[in-house]
C-alpha cells in the first residue's frame, strides 16, 4: 500500500484589505489625529486659565477677581481723565496766531530815524531794531538817499550810478530784520534836492544859459550846488524809479523829502517851462509831480511827503504855496522845536482842510 505523501502547504504573506480600504483607513487616521489636535487647541486656553487660576488662588493665595476688578477700575479712571483733559482742551480757545506785519499800514504810532551808516551787519541792525521796539517805535525811517545826493545802497537805477556811497548797506536785509522785530520799515528818499545825479543825467537839472547847470551859489568854488528840476519829466521818473526799487527791497512805506524848487528863484534859471517863473506855476507843478507818484504807486506803497513845519503853513518861493496845499495824501512834518498843543492843532487842522488824510508831527530833536 502506498504511503500517503504529506502535502506541503505554501503560505503567502498577503493582505486581505483592498487598496481602497487602505486609503480610507489612512484618511480616517489623519482625520482622527486632526480632531484630537483641534480639540487640544480649543481646550488649551481653558486648561491654561484653569491652571493659572489654580496656581494663583491655591498656591499663591491671590484673589484674581479682586485684582481684575481693580484693573478695570483703574482703566476706567484713566479713560475718564483722558476724556476730561480732551474736553478741557477743546473748550479752551486756541492762542491767536501772530498776524503778519502790514507794511503799508498807517497806525498813528511813533516814528524814529535810524542812522543808516551804522547798519552794517545783522547784529547791528537787530540791536537797533530792538532798541526802537523797547522805546515804543512803530516805524523806522531809513535814509537811503539824502539831500547831498548820496545813495546808501547799491541802486541799479542808471541815473544813480555816480551817487552810490563807497560802502553801500544791504537795504533789503535792513527792511527784513526790522519787520522780523515788529518794526515797519520806511525808506526816506530826497527828491529834487540832489546836486549829484544831475551830472549823470543833465536833463534832470535846473539850467541856465543853454545846457549849463544852474548852481545855487554862483559857482561850485563858492559851495554852489546844482538842483533837480521838478518840471523835468526825467527827474520825476528818476524819483519814481527809486521808489519802485526800494519797494522791491521790502519798503512799503516811502517818505520823500526835498519835493521843492530851489529856495532862491532868479531870472537866470531855466526850468524849461514858463511856469517856473511864477509861484502859481511852481505850486501847480509840484502838485502834479506828487499826484503822478501817488497814482503810480497806489495800492503798493504808502507814500509820504515830508516838510519842516515852516514850509507847511506859510507860502514860500520853494513851494509856490503852503506845503499842506500840494495834494499829498500823507504828510510827515518835522519841527526844529517841540510844537505846543495849539500850534500842533492848527497845523493838523490846516492839513485836514487841504485834504491831507494823515499827518504825523515830530520834534526833529527827538526824531532820532
From TrEMBL:
Signal peptide: none annotated. Keywords: Hydrolase, Membrane, Transmembrane, Transmembrane helix. Residues 83-104 are annotated as: Disordered. Residues 121-284 form the DUF4015 domain. One of its GO terms (molecular function) is hydrolase activity. The chain crosses the membrane at residues 26-44. It holds the Pfam family DUF4015. The keyword Transmembrane helix applies. Residues 83-92 have a biased composition (Low complexity). This is Glycoside hydrolase. The lineage of its organism: Bacteria, Bacillati, Bacillota, Clostridia, Eubacteriales.
Amino acid at each position: 500500500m502506498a504511503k500517503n505523501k504529506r502535502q506541503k502547504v505554501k503560505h503567502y504573506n498577503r493582505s486581505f484589505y483592498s487598496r481602497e480600504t487602505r486609503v480610507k483607513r489612512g484618511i480616517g487616521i489623519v482625520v482622527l489625529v486632526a480632531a484630537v489636535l483641534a480639540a487640544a487647541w480649543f481646550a488649551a486656553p481653558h486648561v491654561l486659565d484653569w491652571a493659572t487660576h489654580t496656581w494663583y488662588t491655591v498656591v499663591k493665595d491671590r484673589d484674581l477677581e479682586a485684582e481684575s476688578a481693580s484693573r478695570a477700575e483703574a482703566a476706567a479712571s484713566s479713560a475718564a481723565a483722558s476724556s476730561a483733559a480732551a474736553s478741557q482742551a477743546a473748550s479752551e480757545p486756541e492762542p491767536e496766531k501772530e498776524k503778519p506785519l502790514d507794511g503799508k499800514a498807517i497806525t498813528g504810532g511813533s516814528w524814529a530815524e535810524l542812522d543808516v551808516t551804522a547798519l552794517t551787519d545783522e547784529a547791528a541792525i537787530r540791536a537797533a531794531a530792538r532798541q526802537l521796539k523797547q522805546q515804543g517805535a512803530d516805524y523806522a525811517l531809513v535814509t537811503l538817499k539824502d539831500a547831498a545826493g548820496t545813495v546808501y545802497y547799491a541802486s541799479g537805477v542808471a541815473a544813480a550810478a555816480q551817487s552810490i556811497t563807497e560802502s553801500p548797506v544791504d537795504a533789503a536785509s535792513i527792511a527784513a530784520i526790522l519787520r522780523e522785530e515788529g518794526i515797519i520799515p520806511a525808506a526816506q528818499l530826497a527828491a529834487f534836492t540832489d546836486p549829484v545825479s544831475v551830472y549823470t543825467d543833465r536833463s534832470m537839472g535846473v539850467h541856465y544859459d543853454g545846457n549849463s547847470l544852474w548852481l545855487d551859489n554862483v559857482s561850485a568854488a563858492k559851495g554852489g550846488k546844482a538842483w533837480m528840476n521838478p518840471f523835468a519829466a526825467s527827474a520825476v521818473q528818476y524819483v519814481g524809479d527809486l521808489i519802485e526799487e526800494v519797494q522791491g527791497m521790502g519798503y512799503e512805506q516811502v517818505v520823500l523829502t526835498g519835493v521843492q524848487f530851489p529856495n532862491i528863484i532868479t531870472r537866470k534859471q531855466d526850468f524849461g517851462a514858463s511856469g517856473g517863473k511864477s509861484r502859481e506855476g511852481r505850486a501847480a507843478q509840484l502838485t502834479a509831480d506828487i499826484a503822478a507818484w501817488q497814482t503810480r504807486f497806489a495800492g503798493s506803497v504808502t507814500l509820504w511827503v515830508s516838510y519842516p513845519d515852516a514850509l507847511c503853513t506859510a507860502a514860500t518861493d520853494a513851494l509856490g504855496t503852503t506845503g499842506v496845499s500840494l495834494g499829498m495824501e500823507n504828510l510827515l512834518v518835522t519841527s526844529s522845536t517841540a510844537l505846543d498843543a495849539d500850534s500842533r492843532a492848527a497845523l493838523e487842522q490846516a492839513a485836514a482842510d487841504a485834504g491831507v488824510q494823515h499827518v504825523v508831527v515830530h520834534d526833529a530833536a527827538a526824531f532820532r
